[in-house]
Write a sequence for this structure.
């Protein structure tokens, strides 16, 4: 069984994702946390294979929580979950050692697929994040459209 720690500051999201993940035969949610601080504390008590981490939370936030968790538990697999799939955050998280990044708009089967991929030692990016990262590397991708107007 793949054990998962689910971290999100919205109870409805946590409850919904937990119920959906528990329908998978090979996945069990072993803990939930509503903040980065709670996630770090939970990692000191739980044995878990995968952390599903909301990126945007109050307090230290998902990015800093990922950094601290990976510092203390370098073998744990982290998948970032966010509504913000562009900008520098996905790339920064991947550089930290996060193995997956999926959108909160992703279907449940994609979340399950991402969990299975990272457990197998692979990286997983939802198509929206993968496209954004690919286009960021193109010439002029980071150029402001307003510079052409002046």
């Amino acid at each position: 069984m793949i054990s998962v720690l689910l971290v999100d500051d919205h109870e409805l999201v946590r409850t919904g994702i937990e119920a959906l993940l528990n329908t998978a035969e090979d996945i069990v949610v072993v803990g939930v946390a509503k903040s980065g601080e709670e996630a770090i504390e939970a990692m000191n008590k739980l044995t878990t294979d995968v952390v599903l981490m909301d990126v945007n939370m109050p307090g230290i936030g998902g990015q800093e929580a990922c950094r601290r968790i990976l510092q203390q538990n370098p073998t744990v697999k982290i998948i970032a979950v966010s509504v913000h799939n562009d900008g520098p955050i996905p790339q920064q998280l991947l550089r930290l050692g996060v193995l997956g990044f999926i959108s909160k708009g992703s279907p449940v089967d994609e979340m399950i697929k991402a969990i299975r991929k990272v457990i197998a030692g692979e990286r997983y990016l939802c198509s929206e994040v993968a496209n954004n990262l690919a286009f960021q590397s193109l010439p002029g991708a980071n150029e402001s459209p307003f510079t052409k107007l002046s």
About this structure: Residues 9 and 34 are 4 Å apart (CA to CA). The beta strands are 2-7, 27-33, 50-54, 77-82, 100-103, 124-125.
